[in-house]
Amino acid sequence: MPVTASVDLGALRHNVRTLQKCAADADVMAVLKADAYGHGAVPVARTLADEGVRHFAVARPDEGVHLREAGLSGRILVLGAPFPNHLSVYTRHDLDVTVSSADAAEAVRTHGTSAHPLRAHVKIDTGMGRLGLAPADAPEVIHRLAAADGVVLAGVWTHFATADAPDSSFPQTQLDRFEALLDRLDATPECIHTANTGALLTVGPRARDFPRPLVRTGISLYGLAARPALASRLPLRPIMQLRARVTHLKTVAPGTPISYGATWRASEPSRIATLGVGYGDGYPRLASGRAVVRIAGEKRPVVGTICMDMCMVNLGPPDRPPATDVSVGDEALLFGPEGPTMHDVADWAETIPYEICCDLSSRVPRTYTDTEPKAPPTPHSTTEAPPAP
Asked: 153 lies in a domain?
């Protein structure tokens, strides 16, 4: 294959153990949306279940169904708002539903039965402005849900807007609003969750200082964060590498243009390697003229415009290394722990690492290694769903 992504499940085990320790008494909810941020939801979920994770989250019902069909038996929360006519999918596949409006709450109350209850996590909008009930409206909605025979009040939660910014005070404001709402409830949910990866790293214990807390860990499971400074707060390991093979080599004269638009021309005799990767694989076109790759032990620049299926690398003078050390079929590292990193690629593409890994195309094969020993059993080491109260 011209391009391959390798995923280190041993590094994933290391990361979840680190996060479980950081979360203290809170259980980890592993976020597996968008095919586990492009890493492969099924192998990632199975590895995390081996490590005792029993709460998972996805964005859409079909993602939860995919995990159920693969044999995952832990709790699976669908984070997105439900369509009322799709609620049968939740009961059929034992998926937890997000209730983010009064209309959704009424649909859940109507659909659920004592024989096939719906497990509801009520989302409170404390300032994200995306989904959720206003704190003033939530107590009555939660009361009605808790009183329904066909509903289990599985959770109450909110989501931070600025937790990735260590100096922001807004998470504290959101927590004030959320805690005031909790004080007004006359029902007890199975769990309460506010902390995502950013909050775990910046807000601290207050973001998980609740009865039966969960911590929603997404990007950190994969050894990443919104910015490198956050990732460095915990000893996390990036779990993915992207490599592409050299498909063509040529020596060009000074002034020779390379790729669409002729935006780059050789300033001296140069050896040019064509790699079998492009934006059709998820390697961002915006990184054109900015990116470097590691090849033959050296970092070399990507030159010219990145194409759909190919990009070009300047190996330098044809009579000197690394040009003399590279052959067709050799691999170049586009990103990996030793660098360039996924954070580097995100910077070149003026985005965040989330987008780089999520945009990795399905035509890029994923390969998996797992050299880390499985964690010993703990009281939480079960893939069985916790019993309903």
From this structure: yes
Q: What residue numbers bound the domain in which 117 lies?
A: 9-221
Choose the catalytic residue: 250, 260, 299, 374. Answer: 260
DSSP 8-class letter at 375:
P
Task: Give 111: exposed, middle or buried? Use CB within 10 Å, 0-12, 13-18, 19+.
Answer: buried
Nearest to 150 by CA among 66, 193, 90, 73: 90
Residues 202, 286, single domain; the answer is no
Task: Pull the structure tokens for residue 166.
Answer: 């260590």
By DSSP bridging, strand 118-123 and strand 96-99 are: parallel
Q: 250 an active-site residue?
A: no
**What does each of the 389 residues of the chain score in pLDDT, given as a tens digit?**
999 999 999 999 999 999 999 999 999 999 999 999 999 999 999 999 999 999 999 999 999 999 999 999 999 999 999 999 999 999 999 999 999 999 999 999 999 999 999 999 999 999 999 999 999 999 999 999 999 999 999 999 999 999 999 999 999 999 999 999 999 999 999 999 999 989 999 999 999 999 999 999 999 999 999 888 888 889 999 999 999 999 999 999 999 999 999 999 999 999 999 999 999 999 999 999 999 999 999 999 999 999 999 999 999 999 999 999 999 999 999 999 999 999 999 999 999 999 999 999 999 999 999 987 776 655 443 333 333 33
Q: Say yes or no: 155 and 246 in one domain.
A: no
12: its two tokens: 């994933």
User: Catalytic residue at 260?
Assistant: yes
Domain-located, residue 1:
no
| Residues 166, 122 share a domain | yes
Regarding whether 340 and 208 lie in a shared domain, the answer is no
Active-site position among 33, 123, 222, 283: 33
Nearest to 17 by CA among 205, 220, 241, 225: 220
pTM: 0.93
Q: Can you tell me the distance from the alpha carbon of 229 to that of 218, in angstroms, rounded to the nearest whole number?
A: 17
